[in-house]
Write a structure and sequence with these properties.
Layout (H helix, E strand, L loop, with lengths): L3 E6 L3 H16 L3 E3 L7 E6 L4 H17 L4 E6 H13 L4 E3 L7 H11 L25 E7 L10 H5 L3 E2 L2 H13 L4 E6 L6 E2 L2 E2 H9 L6 E4 L9 H5 L9 E3 L7 H7 L5 H14 L4 E8 L6 H14 L3 E6 L17 H26 L3 E9 L4 E5 L5 E5 L8 E11 L6 E5 L1
Parallel strand pairs: 1-2, 1-3, 3-4, 4-5, 6-8, 8-11, 12-13, 13-14, 17-19
Antiparallel strand pairs: 6-7, 9-10, 15-16, 15-18, 16-17, 18-19
Helix pairs in contact: 11-12
């Protein structure tokens, strides 16, 4: 009788990529994939540790699974393991605690456990990239991991400690991965990594990698996910004229104050970030820019916070993922003076979210009436299709005559709002 396995994934797109690849591996071996809230023989929790809130959510998820499914095999992996491995081992809450470096061996570890009654994760080699291409995932898009680790050592960030130093995946492996998932029928591939703009494998850098991916045969498009701000070359920006490359990037700002950026150990200035955005918009005026901003960083004053607000309005990011600064033990920022009270962080976070909503509304209004190539992600029981255009704009359309995972050409019509005021989409014309 086949075993049933469920996955709970928290955190970034790198985790999502790894979960998709692992789930496909288990399915190929005859395991049944279950929803994370259903009954299963095995539960895998792929964790995040970027903030204290992330840790709390991971602990809650693990405890909830153990409480609801006391007989199931519980496996915890991901960044929280690298950060809090001893704590997890000592708690006894999980049957296996597997670090990021051995996550790719998770199938072998679990399968060995069921076949011979035991397995030793520490006996497997460390390998960040030996995931098999996903053929059947939880998403319409196929995530492609190209890079892991980071050498930036921002003063607030624990990622270099839990993901290690920067490592780039061999370019030929990436091209083969893209060819395979396109062969499986995926219409969109999303390039992801911890700091993928610094990709460098032998003579191939990030720009050359993207250019080569665009040359691969097939009816698909490429999306660049979260990326650090770099001085993108004119040649790279010109690639966004290619019909396969989606005109959208999530570029991590973190602060619109030079004083705060310096204390964060971010390696650019506000003026450099502005010039980069101006060059992007000059190359493609409809380009969709989204970002991350941290509020309440140690030493952030009302003045420096207002500088961030003014800059966010100026650039017009259509979405701002707002984080309240979270102390991470072991980072330089954890010992900085002038820690901002939690109340002030919450108030500033709400201000930034309102700016994000104002920016999104302006961008959506600008895009009304424009053509988009919509990728249908699902069709509900009423025949309503939902998906995204190349600018990463959510679209609702009549699903008659189409199917999931198909491209349809539409024009952006009326803007509709969801239950939350920041949830917006377009009706297709």
């Amino acid at each position: 009788m086949s075993k049933t396995i469920a996955f709970k994934t928290l955190g970034c797109r790198v985790n999502l990529y790894e979960t998709d690849a692992l789930a496909s591996r288990f399915k190929a071996a005859g395991y049944e994939i279950a929803d994370s809230d259903a009954d299963a023989d095995v539960f895998v929790v792929n964790t995040c540790t970027v903030t204290n809130t992330s840790d709390q959510k991971c602990r809650q998820a693990i405890h909830q699974i153990r409480r609801k499914h006391p007989e199931a095999l519980v496996v915890v992996t991901g960044c929280m393991v690298n950060h809090r491995k001893e704590e997890l081992l000592q708690s006894g809450i999980a049957d296996f605690v597997i670090d990021n470096e051995r996550k790719a061996a998770l199938f072998n570890i679990i399968d060995e456990h069921f076949h011979i009654g035991h397995s030793d994760p520490e006996g497997y080699d460390r390998d960040l990239f030996s995931y098999q291409p996903a053929f059947d995932t939880f998403h319409t898009r196929s995530l492609i991991k190209i890079h892991d680790g980071c050498n930036n050592f921002c003063s607030y960030c624990i990622i270099p400690m839990v993901r290690g130093r920067a490592t780039s995946r061999p370019s030929e492996d990436i091209y083969n991965n893209v060819r395979e998932v396109v062969g499986h029928g995926f219409k969109e591939v999303v390039l992801t990594g911890v700091n993928m703009g610094r990709y460098q494998h032998e003579e191939t850098n990030f720009e050359q990698l993207v250019e080569n991916i665009l040359k691969i045969d097939g009816d698909f498009r490429v999306r660049v996910s979260s990326i650090e701000p770099d001085q993108f070359s004119d040649r790279f920006l010109a690639l966004f004229q290619h019909e396969k490359l989606a005109p959208h990037m999530h570029i991590c700002l973190q602060s619109g104050s030079d004083d705060t950026l310096k204390r964060m150990n971010r390696h650019y200035t506000v003026s450099q970030f502005r010039a980069m955005c101006q060059r992007i918009k000059a190359a493609r005026p409809d380009f969709n820019l989204t970002t991350d901003i941290i509020v309440g960083f140690p030493g952030e004053t009302e003045q420096t916070f207002n500088e961030s607000c003014d800059f966010a309005r100026e650039i017009g990011f259509s979405h701002i993922h707002t984080f309240k600064y979270s102390v991470r033990t072991g980072t330089k920022a954890a010992t900085m003076p002038d820690q901002v009270p939690e109340k002030a962080k919450t108030e500033r976070s709400e201000v930034m979210r309102q700016i994000s909503l104002e920016n999104k509304t302006k961008y959506f209004m600008m895009m009304q009436g424009r053509k988009q190539r919509m990728l249908v992600e699902r069709i509900d029981g009423k025949g309503i299709a939902r998906g995204y255009g190349e600018n990463y704009l959510p679209i609702i359309a009549n699903g008659k005559g189409t199917e999931k995972n198909a491209f349809i050409n539409i024009r952006l019509g009326e803007i509709v709002h969801g239950e939350n005021e920041d949830k917006m989409a377009f009706n297709a014309l």
